[in-house]
């Protein structure tokens, strides 16, 4: 049973929003964390780096020590999601393109989401 909180965690996800309960539950489970300004952006597409973060949190995978920035040529060690990108790649939840790029700010497509979730469920 999902209990709907009286107050929203994110100011841009109203209690009347169709996904309010889902967003609140995923946040309570530490799967979602929102943006640094406290918002969620419920209508935005999910980026590949955000999908990596969600997948790693859902699976409970830990980042390999000292691996940040080694696999993907376009994800520097200083990038906010470097460790989760590396972890998602190490667990075959996501893949690089043919040029060795992760394309972290590109939207994730449905096949990428399905692949990441399959890897989580089959771990």
Largest sheet, strands/sense/barrel: none
Fraction of residues in H or I helices: 25-40%
Number of strands: 0
Strand content: under 5%
Instruction: Give the averaged pLDDT, no decimals.
Output: 91
What is the oligomer described by this structure?
Answer: single chain
Tally of contiguous helical segments:
4
Helix/strand class:
mainly alpha
Terminal Cα separation, in Å?
26 Å
Order of helices and strands: HHHH
* Number of domain modules: 2
Gross morphology is globular
Low-confidence stretches: none
CA radius of gyration = 15 Å
Architecture blueprint of SSEs:
Layout: H1 20-28, H2 48-59, H3 82-90, H4 110-121
Helix pairs in contact: 2-3, 2-4
Please tell me about this protein's structure.
There is one protein chain. This protein is mainly α. It has two domains: 38 residues, no CATH class; 74 residues, no CATH class. The longest helix has 12 residues. The mean pLDDT is 91.
Features:
single chain, 2 domains, 123 residues
Q: Short summary of the structure?
A:
Helices cover 34% and strands 0% of the residues.
């Amino acid at each position: 049973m999902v209990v709907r909180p009286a107050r929203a965690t994110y100011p841009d996800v109203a209690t009347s929003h169709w996904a309010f309960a889902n967003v609140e539950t995923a946040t309570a489970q530490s799967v979602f964390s929102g943006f640094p300004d406290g918002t969620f952006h419920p209508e935005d597409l999910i980026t590949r780096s955000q999908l990596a973060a969600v997948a790693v949190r859902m699976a409970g995978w830990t980042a390999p020590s000292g691996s940040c920035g080694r696999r993907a040529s376009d994800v520097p060690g200083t990038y906010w999601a470097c460790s989760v990108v590396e972890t998602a790649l190490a667990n075959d939840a996501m893949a690089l393109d043919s040029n060795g790029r992760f394309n972290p700010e590109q939207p994730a497509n449905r096949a990428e989401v399905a692949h990441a979730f399959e890897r989580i469920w089959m771990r």
